[in-house]
Structure formats: structure tokens, C-alpha cells
User: Fold this.
Amino acid sequence: MKKGCPYGTHRVISPKGVLPQPADVIDNTMEIYDNEVLIDVKTLNVDSASFTEIVRRSCNGKKPTDDLTAEDIQAIKDTMLGIVAKAGKHKNPWTGSGGMLIGTVKEIGPAYVGDLKVGDKIATLVSLSLTPLVIEEILEMRPAIDQVDIKGQAILFQSGIYAVLPEDMEEGLALSALDVAGAPAQAAKLVQSGQKVLVIGGGGKSGLLCLYEAKKRAGVTGLVVCAAGSQKSEDRARSLDLADAYFHLDATDAVSMYNKAMELTDGELFDVVINCVNIENTEMASILATKDEGTVYFFSMATSFTKAALGAEGVGKDVNMIVGNGYTKGHAAITLQCLREHEGLRNLFKEMYA
Ligand code: NAP
Assistant:
């Protein structure tokens, strides 16, 4: 059996010398190296930005939530199969992003170090944009929630993180929450008792989990506020009683966000601001709502490093800005625990995403 590199560089075909994620083409032969894990894949949870772009390009501008015809579904399948045939992985050529998968461990290399056993049901928590993948057949698609059931196999490298799927919740439910696991886990780390916290995009999937975790950590002496994108998602968060205050505002309007933050905190601004939106140009609303020496956590993938850095400097704000690394220690356990602890949140996730 051939020896593998922990990061999977042995699978890179082109360009040579890069890691599997930035590579254009990787080797997706399903014969494992000595430190790899072979997975029988059940479902792909394609990254939201990636799936939206695939649908748009395959179906004449349609969205995943539109009524899709049989021809549309076939066109999406063809695009997905084409991506994997070309790259050996499901890395969207237009957005560069991947997603994650769930499946069952089929084989483990003798040099692999870890607790996995053959037969374990797992969710990989590393991106599909670096995961060697073979799709034999696309069986079913749930476009509105970016999930695609397939017959196929994938490889997990030694360095690849994963979560064993819990037995006390449906796979689809766990998968949808684990997709954004970094956000509530970072909230758990960042928020201290008594702090004032603002979650922008608080009515969305990662936002709701962050509100729950922030409220738990800030406690009764803290203040947790949900800044939603619309009345609908504001009502969604309010119905679950996840925050101390709620409003909705266009987060690209930085000055209005600042005024609202001043009003809600008696001019103090927030200790921690968590950005969970899925659109561009919300960096300044997050920065202006944060007090000096406070912290902004940019979970949103639409965040621009340049806009955040130059924007903060431009308004003379000394704030800590954290890049939304999707991984932090214990992220899967913290996220699944949110769903176990809050029945309303769990039911909403079941209804909306599972
Ligand atoms: P989501 O459920 O779609 O939530 C996004 C929220 O943004 C929605 O609730 C939406 O509000 C709100 N929003 C949209 N436009 C807005 C505006 N102009 N002003 C204020 N709010 C606005 O998405 P998600 O799954 O939580 O993901 C959120 C972000 O995290 C995405 O950018 C995603 O790419 C990123 N992400 C990052 C990682 C990572 O590792 N860092 C991993 C997964 C996902 P309405 O519902 O009211 O429209």
C-alpha cells in the first residue's frame, strides 16, 4: 500500500506542489493510501453559494428555491458530474467552494491514526473542494436545502476533520447544523458573562445558533441582540425567544446599523459582533456597531479582508477582527448540543433544513 501525506498532497495532479484545496485536479482513484479513510457517500451538502451558482448556470438563471423542471434537475446533475469528472472533487469552478458530506466508513488504512471504525456513520467537516470524490449516480436532490443524495465514494485524509453522526437525531438535521458548526462554537468561545452581543443575520441558520450560544454565555447580565435581514427572519428568531432584543435592517447600511447599536446599548456599542449574513458589503456595519477594543467575528464567506481592514482604519476603530475559520476545537459537539438543549431550535431546523 502506498504511503500518503497527512494533508493529501500525494493526490494532487495539477498544479504540482500545491495542497489539495487549491489544486485544479486531484487523483480520485478509490484505492486508499496507508493513512486514508474510504467513505461510502450518502449525501452531499453542497455549499450554499456553490449550489446557487450551479443552479443559476444550469437552469437559465433560476434559483434553488424556484420550481425546477425535470430538465432543470438533469442539467444540475450534468453540471455536478462534470465538475467531479474534471477535478476529481466537487470544487465549484465559479465560487471555489465545496460543502461537506455524510457517509459510512468502508475502509481504513493501516497507518491512519484516529478513533474511526469501519461502519461508523460520519459527516466530513473538511470541504468538498479538497475531498477526492467519485459520483457513480445522483439519486435524489433537495435543491432548496442544497442536499444531493448520491451513490459514490470519497476519501478522508489523515488531517481531515469529521464528526461521528449522533444517534439521537436525524442525519439531515445533524448535517444541516454541522455545516455551520464553526459559528456557534466561536460564539461560545468569544462571549463572556455580562457582555453585549450583536448577531447580524441573526435569523438565518448560523445566526440562530449563535444567538442561542451567545445568550447562554452572556447570561442574565448580558445583552444579546438579533439584527435580522427581514421581518420574516426577525419573527423567526423572536418566536424562539433567542435574544433580548430584535430588529431588522439592511446590513449594507452601516450608518443605520451604528445608530441602532448606539440606541440599544445606551451609546456603549457592542463587545462582540458576529456577522452571519450571506451577502457582500456588511463589514462596516459590523465594525461601527462594535466598541473600541471589542471583537468582530466575520463568519460570513462574503466578507472582504480588504474592506474590513481598510474600513476599520478609515474610521479609526481599534477592534479585533476574526476571520471565520469554519473550525474551532469542539465545534461539532457544541453545535449539536445547541439542538439538543433547545427544542424550538431543533424543531425549526428539522422543519427548515432536515
Ligand atoms: P442563511 O441561513 O442563508 O443566513 C443568512 C442570513 O443573512 C439570512 O437570515 C438573511 O436574512 C441575512 N441577510 C441577507 N441579506 C441581508 C442584509 N442585507 N442585511 C441583513 N441581513 C441579511 O446562511 P447561513 O447558512 O447561516 O450562512 C451564513 C454565512 O456563513 C454565508 O455567507 C456562508 O457562506 C457562511 N459560511 C461560513 C462558513 C465558515 O466556515 N466560515 C461555513 C458555512 C457557511 P433574511 O433571511 O431575512 O433574508
The first helix runs from residue 48 to 58. Residues 9-165 form one domain.
